[in-house]
Amino acid sequence: MQRVWPEDELVARWSLAPEDLALVRGMADSGKLGLSAQLAFWRQHGRFPDDEADLAPMALAHLAAQVGVAAGVLEGYEWAGRTGRRHRRMVLDHLAVAAFDTDAEAILRRWLTDEVLPRELRRAAMEEEISAWFAHSRIVRPGAYRLDRIVRSTRVAYDDAALQSVADRLDPETRERLNALLSDSGEGAAFTRLATDPGRVGLESLFAEITKLDLLRTLGLPRDVLRGLHPDQINRFHRRAAIETAWELRRHPERIRLPLLAFYCVPREGEVVDGLVELLIQVTHRITVKAERRVIEELVAEAQQVRGKAGILFRVAEAAVGQPDGVVREVIFPVAGEQTFEALAREAKALGTPQSRRIHTVVRASYGSYYRRMMPKLLAALDFCSNNGAHRPLLDALTTIRRAIEDVVRPKWRDIVIEDAPGGGKRVNRINYEICVLQTLRERLRCKEVWVAGANRFRES
């Protein structure tokens, strides 16, 4: 119950009309305030207060000021006694409140079905709306037990109608495929595999999610199978199916089991697509991060400066001049040492090769031997979209993996992607190009300039 009211709301909701003030004229002080409180409370909540504690102190003070009495006169007021009951009858007559009969119940059920139940309100919010309905409709509120039964039975009928509407849209072939999700041939039901999380990021988890997506799409659920149903109701049925096992779902009659599976599978397809996009982003990121970490470790190890290079060069030159026809291992290594030459070679390599090229070399090796296997299946499973024409080359590159160098390949990598052909001219290095496409795709997905059809989160906002 609201205890604090802004001044404008307090005046709008708890002020008495002239005819209200005429109703309490000539009463004792406690009767004036008691009847006024019950009248204003009913207008606000569609029911009468049980005692003074149900009223906000500031609302009570506002009412007391209007009838010209002190708020403390209510201490002796009999809310549940003969006076309180008599005042309630006066309020109902004054407001012309109708009895809650069969017609009123039918109107209430229709209002619950059309206005309240689709929004999946919490209990407190639903109670507040029901109270407001009785107040606005000027109908006597029934007892708590009867009202609760009406609400529960209306919800059951509402849910049954939703389940039936979905079931009516399923043809015999689709029903058979849905039932097959729950069958267990000894390796577990397919429904159980659909409910698993992607797990640790990797190529295997990516393939597992693609398998789930293929399974969901082969169900062939009609596009309009959930048409006309409120998103909150769809989410509630989806959650209900998600927490049940295949064994529990099999125990439901078909009129409940098949719609529940449809409620689960339609949003689940979007969840799986979201998971695939997230896995794609993370796998592509992992390739580069691991390569950068490895190259940095190598650079740190290789960047140990070899001291005394001038002296080493002098001794090597002296030994070479002294025995020009000698063997390196016998003439050169004794004056400088084989390990010294290895250190010099590492230092020269570290200083001579750009870090970006070394990173790309590691990325290429990792992608070509392991991650490249995901490309064909991933492109076959996901439909990438964009409304921005600037990203058209990227989308073309995903479907051809050959064209559209501009706006896809980073400038610093173009000399790696476009290389000299043996017979002259230029050619595209396919593996290097695929790596560039994946990394560019990751950036566009993260900023939502490109999205995947059917995804829930990774779509154009």
Contiguous uncertain segments of 5+ residues: 401-406
Please state roughly what percent of the residues sit in beta strands, choosing from under 5%, 5-15%, 15-25%, 25-35%, 35-45% or over 45%: under 5%
Query: How many DSSP H or I helices?
Result: 23
Would you report the number of β strands?
4
- In the sheet with the most strands, the strands line up as 1-4
Helix/strand-derived class? mainly alpha
Shape: elongated
Overall mean pLDDT stands at 80
Radius of gyration: 38 Å
Kindly report how far apart the N and C termini lie: 38 Å
Order of helices and strands: HHHHHHHHHHHHHHHHHHHHEHHEEHE
Give the oligomer, counting copies of the same chain as homo and different chains as hetero: single chain
Main beta sheet, described?
A: 2 strands, antiparallel
Fraction of helical residues: 55-70%
Written overview of the protein:
The chain is an all-alpha fold and 461 residues long. Among the domains are: 7-95, no CATH class; 102-167; 172-181 and 188-268, no CATH class; 383-452, no CATH class. The chain is 65% helix and 2% strand. It has 23 helices and 4 strands. The chain has helices at 7-14, 18-24, 29-45, 57-67, 82-95, 102-116, 123-137, 144-167, 172-180, 190-194, 203-218, 231-242, 246-251, 254-302, 309-322, 328-331, 333-336, 338-352, 355-369, 374-381, 392-400, 414-417, 430-446, and strands at residues 384-385, 418-420, 426-428, 451-452. The protein has a two-stranded antiparallel sheet with strand order 1-4. It has a two-stranded antiparallel ribbon with strand order 2-3. Strand 2 and strand 3 (426-428) form a beta hairpin. Helix 11 packs antiparallel against helix 14 and helix 11 (203-218) packs parallel to helix 20. 23% of the residues are buried.
